[in-house]
Amino acid sequence: MNFDKKAGLYHQNARIQKIVADWCAEWIEEDCSTLSALELGSGTGLFTRHLELRAFESLRATDLSRSMIEEGKSRLPDVDWAELDAWECESAAKVDRLYACSLLQWSENPLETLEKWRNALAPKGRFLGCLFVEGSLKELIGEEFRLGEFEWRSEQQWLTCFEQSNYDIRRWDTRLDEEIYDSPMQALRHLHDLGATTNRNANPGKLKQHLKRLETHSGRFKVSWKTLRLEGSVD
User: Fold this and answer.
1) Domains plus CATH for the chain?
2) 67/19 Cα distance (integer angstroms)
3) Whole-prediction pTM value?
């Protein structure tokens, strides 16, 4: 993924990610004044802004991308920002709440990732997050265009991952959103502007043919995003 290179464009282009962040925030507890919290993959602060309003006893927003952190700092200067690899999650101290919005779907090793996140939580700690699941970008993806080696997982596969990682799933649900573009090419360019593509280039000729096949007579092209929202706790 190329999120670091696209940090300057991300905030204005992350329309679905903002909708998902707002939706995820509905499950944040109202009184967080006695809680410590760590957010992973904070990006430019789309979800962080909701956390800041809850007045945690301590809150740290993190991202692996320095460029994303700088963008986040410029928008939320009072938040404690730090560079952290979410897949390693080597946090100095255990926290009461761990948050990750629009991040976990990119993990190459979900069970390993969830175990490390679990280890970052204090006893009786909770995880809250949203992630994109199978059904997302289904109109665009084909053999000629894939997000690198990325594989979408269904909500049931993700629920199984959490259960196998010894999370007690408190509640979960899904939502489906759609974006409308003028063409498949415009949709692909939007993904590029988000940084949600890899450096591995597809065969230009095959990609062009693939996009041509996807064109509709109406001149409108729909792209779906399916999101899982989940809250889990640990012993």
Assistant:
1) 7-137+148-179+225-233 (3.40.50.150)
2) 22
3) 0.86
